[in-house]
Structure formats: C-alpha cells, structure tokens
Amino acid sequence: MIAPGEHIDYQQLAQQIKGWARELGFQQSGISDINLAAAGQHLNNWLNKKFHGSMAYMAKHGSARYHPEQLVPGTIRVISVRLDYMKTDLKPYEQLLENPQKAAISRYALGRDYHKVLRQKLKKLCTIIDQHAGEFGHRVFTDSAPVMEKALAEKAGLGWIGKHSNLINHQAGSYFFLGEIYTDLPLPVDQTASFHCGSCTQCIQDCPTQAIVAPFQVDARRCISYLTIENKGPIPLQFRQAMGNRIYGCDDCQVVCPWNKFTQHSAEPDFSPRHALDDTTLLELFNWDEATFLKRTEGSPIRRIGYQSWQRNLAVGLGNAHPTKEIIQSLKNRHSGASELVQEHINWALQQLTEVN
C-alpha cells in the first residue's frame, strides 16, 4: 500500500496491473489515453446513415460516448482487458448451420451472462489496485454504458478493428469480450495495435444478409444479430430465409475470418454451455413454455430478449427447416396462445413448410 504522500512509480504500477489482470483470468490488458476523436467521427457518420436502426441508445449520450472525461469526470486513462470465451471443443458453429433442424446460437451466449463475469473480475482488479496504490478515481464498464470499447481496446494494443467492425487479436482471433476501467491514474499508455486485415474481404462476402455494406460499416438493420436480439418488431420478410437457423445472434463473419484459426480455448467455467444450447434442435427450444424459457435462461444473456422474441426467432428458424409432421403440428399448437407478433411469424413458417411440401 502506498503511504500518503509517497511517490508512485506509474510505470511499475502499469506492469503490476497487467500482472494482476492475468491472475484474475484476463488474457490481456492494455492502457490508452482518452482521445477518441477519430472514433467519434466514425460513429457520427454511422448514426447519420441510420445504420443503428432502433438502437436509440447509440445516439442518446451524444459526445460522452467518445469523450470519456464527460462520462466520468477526472478520467485521463482507460485500462482495457480481454477475456476469451470460445470453448473450442464444441461442435463447430458452421456444422450447426449445415443442419437446418438445429438451433444456431452465437457462441458468446451459450453460458453465463458475460456482463456479470467481467464486472466481477474488473471490480476485483480495482480492489487490488486500491490496496497497492491507494484510493483512486475509477469506474468499471463492460458493454453496459456509452463506451467505445473497441476503439479503446485498439488504442490499448489489444487488437485492431476488422472490416466486420469486431476487434481482432493476431494471437487469439476475435472470440473474446472486452471490459474497461476509466481511471484518473496517470499511467503510461500502450502502443495502438496495427491493422492486419490486408486485402481480405471474406467477412463482407460471407455475411448472410450483406449487412457489412463497406469495410468497417455494418448496417445493423440488415444484421442478423440486430434482427434477432435488438429488434423487437417483426423480422423483415426479405431477411427471413437468409436467417436460416440462426435464432440468437450470428457468428458468420467471425467463422470465416482467417485470424480465428488462432482461437484459444477459454478456461473460464462460466462460459461453458448451459442446457445443451450448443447443440440442440429448433423444435425442442420452440416447445419451451415461458416458465421454462425464464428458468433455463436465468443468468444468461439470452433472457434479455424475452420470450416473445425467442418464439419469433424460432418460428423463422422452423420455417427454414426441413418440414416434418412434428414441426408443423408444433407450430399450429403454439399459434392460438401466441402474441400477434409471434402468430405472424408462425403463419409465415407454416406457409414456407407447406410450399416445400
């Protein structure tokens, strides 16, 4: 513990922080300044094009998103951390896509809600820093506030923002979560990561709905992750067949990224799949009643979309499946008790399955 008035070696403290972060299970950490002018301009251009769809919160906080000192007064540095989540021993996501009866769920959502996991670890890291350096101004974030986490992580050297807008690390790919500590500690900053996508455009070519309209520009209104999670209304007709069996999120742009050949197996037990969500059928999930949905998604990021969106997504998935008597009967059985939104998607699914027959 630093005594009052005692000099702090911030160079040494920065290295200690990175060591403590590793001990807590983070794979990497870095430190950046708070100059996000370029990222702010990119954000405003994106907003002006209405690419955020119904995500009004993306514009709500104005310049505080790219001025950390406005969000947390006194902030002069940001400590960014990376936590890998992929379990490499699971059935590959692309194999699920090849079987239309299966449910394809984005790999990040299979286990415990990452917000809780990262926040707990970041709070522990802050406690350790406090014990060694004395009380300091700070606030912890993990995808839960107007924070430009990818831009900050890039400045902190954790990776570069790829053409699909995700962060890529040259030793670990892109299957990881990010977290931040805004702080008033004058720590030395790390070197910004360099760009290594080169001429590759695989993610742009392979997006099922052509949502990556240009390098670094994702039109959320076309993105399956947005459509199945953030969107609370109907899935636009033009994207339903392209959704296939993707019922929560979409990993396609990451699956085809060459850098993910370096994906590391996550040792974090909280990210292990729950209730066999890594390899189950659309029909089994569609047959969950609301009580079962709430019970089996407790502590999961999936729960926040609610039962109605869950049923809506699954109805679309079933409409794209191979028609069976069980699927058709299950859709019919659910129809009368479903909301108007879900009924419309069930009707679409039944029409699709009937046309196939």
UniProtKB/TrEMBL annotation:
One of its GO terms (molecular function) is epoxyqueuosine reductase activity. The keyword 4Fe-4S applies. NCBIfam families: tRNA epoxyqueuosine(34) reductase QueG. Belongs to the QueG family. Pfam families: Fer4_16, QueG_DUF1730. This is Epoxyqueuosine reductase. It catalyses: epoxyqueuosine(34) in tRNA + AH2 = queuosine(34) in tRNA + A + H2O. [4Fe-4S] cluster 2 binds at C207, C223, C250, C253. Binds 2 [4Fe-4S] clusters per monomer. The active site is at D143. Residues 185-217 form the 4Fe-4S ferredoxin-type domain. TRNA binds at K232. InterPro entries: 4Fe4S_Fe-S-bd, QueG, QueG_DUF1730. It comes from Marinicella sediminis. Its cofactor is [4Fe-4S] cluster; cob(II)alamin. Pathway: tRNA modification; tRNA-queuosine biosynthesis. The gene is queG. It comes from the Bacteria. Its EC number is 1.17.99.6. Monomer. SUPFAM superfamilies: 4Fe-4S ferredoxins. [4Fe-4S] cluster 1 binds at C197, C200, C203, C257. It is an enzyme of class 1 (oxidoreductase). Cob(II)alamin binds at R65, D143, L167, L178, S225, C250, D251. It is found in: Cytoplasm. HAMAP family: QueG. Keywords: 4Fe-4S, Cobalamin, Cobalt, Cytoplasm, Iron, Iron-sulfur, Metal-binding, Oxidoreductase, Queuosine biosynthesis, tRNA processing.
